[in-house]
Queue: 4 jobs
Job 1
Amino acid sequence: MPQSHPTVDELKKFFKATPGSDKTRVVRHLLAECPSCQEDWKDIADTSRFEYSGAFAAAEQSLSAFCTKGSPPTERPAVLLAELQSLSEENRLRRVTEDARYGHPEVVEALIEHSHVLRYKSAAEMLHFADLARLSAEACTIEAVGSVPRLGDLRARSWMQYANALKVCNRWSEADEAFSAARVHRKKGTGDPLLRARLLEQTASLRTYQGRLRDAIEMAEEAGEVYRDLEEWHSLGSTLVQQAVATFHANEPEEAIRLLNRAIPMIDPEKNPHLLLAACHNLVLSYISLDRPEQALSLYFEVRELYHEFEDDLILLRVGWQEGQLLRDLGHLRAAETALLQARKGFLEHNLNHEVALVSLDLAWVYVKLRMVEELKQTVAEAVPIFRALRVGRETLAALLQLQQAADQEQQALDIIGVLNRRLTNRRKTGK
């Protein structure tokens, strides 16, 4: 959607070079040659007594930083990407570091996009190509990019993708450090408000994973304000989904449902069908949390076709996991066992230990209810190395071992599973 028009006051501040004014937003709009804003510009010039030399110098500097293009690539990015895909991972890293052809912004953007496409197929591959994008951006020169601020933006985007990939791989401490690097580079950039909002939004997602839920909600709200000002409604919908996820984990499922019902009409399914899927997925989870499985199941079947339009392994695994939870809550325990076993196997194959641990607890709950003591003990035994790999605290590991001992005591076992679920879901980066 089009951006909102700068106000006359904003235009005056821009041409007066007022400190703190949002120059990039005004530049973006004026470049679109908006007729009404050009009339406002004329009115300002006709009726005001500005000293224009400083104003136009500042305007020129903003335009130059934002619009200056660097040198063209020596090779098409698609060709270079194909070359990389024919190499081993180690040789890819060496090629990007040593071959000057890869130190170009168009190559960086191609690597970022390729990493993004892989997010629902392979977390490890997503991280690998994000790392390549980061190395490519670090190899870029000012001449290749066009200006120091544009180089700052480029490196911020590459580090942001790298951080997001680390988050997907559950390497949260490293993701935090990478997001910090992205913020440092962004401050050297053009001041692009969309880049700032995107960085806030992705950091909010990490804060949710870390259990820093209030920080996550505040960051999502701040990003949403930027998107609202720019009339970026689809992106605003995305931040509302982020806010809803954090709110859900803060044990406020009713508020999460309200936010998701606001977000869904804003989401453009052609632009990002995965976002619509995520919103529906979290809506189902919220109904499950409120012990309204019939409503959750009804919604699930409404969107089931949307789920199966995707061939992405990780999406289908999460769908299977959610189906197992629904079947469990509706009392179809044997069917739930089958779905959860398949989901756990898939997450193991993708080395997503956090998800494996949570699915194992769902499976343990099913075995407690079915009074399948030996299966429960075996599930716990298989979960112990997974919990250790997550570096959970001693108390959490002790509780898991206690679950094995309480396998034939239903209420005690269910209470332990509840404690373990809360600790895993809200676990901070310290692993406590």
Job 2
Amino acid sequence: MPKRKAITPELPKTLRPAPPRVALSVGDAAESTGLSKSTLYNCMKAGTLKYIKAGSRRLITVAELESFLARLPQGPEAA
């Protein structure tokens, strides 16, 4: 009798960990940074925040978002 290959059950899609995201919608970027969508749109319009246009959607790469946040002015250090 031939050996059977072990079958590992696959998790349902809802239980699988989501792959890391490389780009965020403006709403998701606002939620993850604590900035408003209006602030992000104004920064995109001013050219200080780069984005990708995919159809009618604007996507902000995680790398650009991190770079943008690093360029913002820092507040005074806590005593």
Job 3
Amino acid sequence: MIIVKDIVALFKSFKTDKKLLTPKEKQLAELKRLIWIYFWLLLLEGALRKWFLPFLSTPLLIVRDPVAMILLFKAQNAGYFKINAAVATAWGITALSLVMTMLVGHHNITIALYGARIMIVQFPVMFLIASIFTREDVLKMGEVVLWIAMPMTVLMGLQFYSPQTAWVNRGVGGDMEGAGFSGAMGYFRPPGTFSFTNGLVGFFGFVTAFVLYFWLEEKSRIPKWLLLAVSACLVAAIPLSISRTFLFQMIISVAFAVVIAIRNPKLTGRFVLAGLCVMVFVTLLGKTSFFQTGTEAFNSRLTSANDAEGGAEGVFVGRFLGGMLGGIIYNQKVPFFGYGLGLGTNAGAKLLTGETKFLFNAEVEWGRVLGEMGVLLGMIIVLTRIVVSFDMIFKSFTAIGKKNYLPWMLISFVFVNILQGQWSQPTAQGFGVLTGGLILAALKAKPKKVLARR
């Protein structure tokens, strides 16, 4: 009965009487609905491509783009979309690169538009969310994410223990070879409702940021039983994901939470309580064969991968610093205006060459940008993302002093994504755009009184 009561309360929080809304408020409500559609498509795009509409798997790859374009058009007409310096730079440089792609690049307009959509269509949505959503809307999305985390964990468990030929492991386009990615001990990294495992890792990183925030929130709107249940799901998700990225992401988010506790000693008790709960979950789950098998597979993956990459230091240098510097160092032979927009994406490379092999270092984001646009235009886009990401983290840190911890916890998840996340991959791009927008919305003035719903 408690669960039903909490679910009903959540649904009621979304309900509004349209008859009482002014025309302006109706416009705003419609824009918010479009953002929620964007959110749901991010979570379910893989499910549509794998299970329900496999024959449309290719067009569904960009299923959020039409929503983003409608959102931008309606927001512009309603006066909610204002072009800032970051968006103006992104549009101007991408438009110039589009022209150069057709003049001296690969000359394929379809591939060029596919590549251009990242900064022209998706990037502005980040700032648009900030102008439409309030802090309360961000909290509602966080609560919804917590509810989704439980069935997502169950699905992850089913995928982990099921053969790749099982329906839950079916790949994009109904591929019977499965969607799991190589893991350890014969087990595969599960993708959840996403097309690939990176989506599931992104989702649980998103969940982690909200869970830690709600543990630290002074007047939590989240029922304690739900917070405990989702915390247990996160503990279970670490070994079942067989993903070092998720483990590192969780460690980073915990470190960010520690910063909040240090700056506000009154929250130390809440932080310790959350830590004790995690220890209890680890102890209880550790006694089950379900958890033990996942842990063995995860440890095997951790050991073999760390040996290959030189341990945690090698992972940091190779993946983080290497992703930044390598994109510049190994693209020295790229033409001044690049090879052309879209050629650094899997879809673009396959359309042009028939296979997913790149002419430049497109495995890392900065390498893709510089390879497509060239050193001059590419570096301007890279610098734009650097400025946006560091501006967010600075403002989020400053907000801690105002007891607004939400942006700081969200930036713990998405900072690296905005800085150098592989936005050629639609799911990674989606989490970067959505979470970036939520951070900017959460930075708005915090209400003096927060109503708790327990």
Job 4
Amino acid sequence: MKKTKIVATIGPESSSKEILRKLILSGVNVIRLNLTHASHDFCKDILEKVRQINEEEGTTVASLLDTNGPDIRTGSFIGGYAFLKKGDKIRIYMDDIMGDNTKFSINYNIIEDIKIGSIIKINDGLVILRVYSKGLNYLICEVLEEGNVYNHKSVNLPGTTLNRCFLSKKDINDIEFATECNFDFIALSFVSTAEDVLDVSDMLIEAGNNHTQIISKIECQNALDELDNIIRVSDGIMVARGDLGVEIPMEKVPSMQKKIINLCHNYGKICIVATEMLSTMEETCRPTRAEVSDVYNAVIDGADAVMLSGETTIGKYPVETVSIMEKILNEAESSIDYSNFFNKALDTEEDDIAGLIAFNVAESAFKLSCKAIITPTMSGLTAKKISRYRPNCPIIAVSPDPDTVKSLMLNFGVIPLLIDDLNSLDKIIAKSTEEAKKILNLCEGDRVVITGGYPFKDSKYTNFMKIEEL
């Protein structure tokens, strides 16, 4: 059973209940809904289907809502696109107009913030312009790299800082929608500072939402400059390699990815690696060898989860993509240097009771070749702390709280299970062991470590550990 989690974005090719069921049974742990393309009604429909499937199949797949953020996009073009030729002068209007091969509009006024000579990248950086001069409501730009520009494509301004609020009215409405629908995670697009994250955190607190976790997407230079502070105030990080690879030179993306994964592990935060993981499978039934290596290396480096985007939204083979992704993850996990992650976690873990017990649990699992770690939990904290140590056996986290169970769906190695109650220690151990046997095919003589906070509903931290031989 894989330890690295799979996030699958849901779109036109994966929105039916039949395909959603197949995706979930093939290994998807979290479904992602991207508000850049999806409506609230679409999100509600998918959530309802996933929750029905969870009920029917006994699964606990979680949900992630991805906000628009302060992104800039092109307007509409006559015929849907225009070809911009190298060397031509093009006007970019701040007011909405129909575009062609001489002009187009964008959805945000950048006149005051951008400087003459600045670079503008469009359509994932495939088309590059340089600002030549400014008008009252338009820019004149020279085309440096030619190509087609389509309706509503992303516009990146590397090196330009925009004087604008992080949260638009739409984003505020979308975050309120996330609370209303009880999404498990929110992915914040185009985070630049820790204050951006704290603004959203304050919104969730004011709404009485103590469940939804915040995943900050790293996709611009400003975020890289503030990386440590952003990680500290976030529940997790997404390495959004699409826009990041436009904002910074693409050859720097791999080293940045490794740095971000490493920092997340040091801070005990979730890390998701995203964008073009198996993008060839949008059109073909198998990935390239380079894509397989890419996924493999993300796991070896310590990512908690990998994400599929176009592969499962518009791709022809969404279910097959998830199945192949799971095979790659299982193979990669057999090559992880678990002792290295253990030692790194030991160096950075806080010297508190929960942290020290998590260390002892992971160390015992290593030395005694335990087949599983079982942790009853009300908050999920125990399982998260143990996950940092990357034990080479699964962590079975049992809880009577559905929100707690789904909150653990992105943590490496954690298999969250919903149980009836946490009252009697003997009953919990018996029930947990029984479930672990089913999931992991445990045999007589196998050892498991059991840990948690006791009494479960009153204890504020992990305070016991027990080793059981089946």
